[in-house]
Design goal:
The protein is of the alpha+beta class. The protein is 32% helix and 19% strand. It has one domain (28-119). The chain has helices at residues 5-21, 28-36, 47-50, 53-56, 114-119; strands at 42-43, 61-68, 71-73, 81-88, 91-93. The protein is elongated, with a radius of gyration of 23 Å.
Length: 124
């Protein structure tokens, strides 16, 4: 069945207009995720899940991730804030808030803020 020409033109124009407007629905985070990879899951330290830090923290690798609008990425993004955390086989974890915590490998200038601890997910 053929579509009459007087109907084809409005249908084609509507399809073009819809595809042109589709980009307005994407947020900045979608563009960031596309360019810099997916956002990381950052977890708070819990001795029940991660174990006693005095025993296992040497196996944790200190890494710098970047906070951009409340999401964390492995690559530096313009206007992002560097945050030092630990990478473990189980994921990215914030350092313990124990008074005795001291790791010479850790860059204290990039210490996580209170906002980072509030945003961190509970153990996986």
């Amino acid at each position: 069945m053929r579509i009459p020409s007087f109907l084809a033109t409005p249908l084609l124009a509507g399809a073009l207009l819809t595809s042109a407007c589709g980009h307005g629905y994407y947020s900045t985070e979608v563009g960031v995720g596309t360019r810099y990879g997916p956002a990381l899951d950052l977890y708070g330290y819990s001795p029940d899940y991660w174990g006693d830090w005095r025993v296992g923290y040497r196996q944790w690798q200190p890494v710098t991730i970047y906070d951009y609008n409340g999401a964390y990425y492995t690559r530096n993004i313009r206007n992002s804030r560097p945050v030092q955390v630990y990478r473990t086989p189980r994921g990215y974890v914030l350092p313990p808030r124990d008074r005795d915590w001291n790791d010479r490998r850790f860059n204290t200038r990039r210490r996580p803020s209170d906002d980072d601890y509030r945003r961190a997910r509970p153990r996986p």
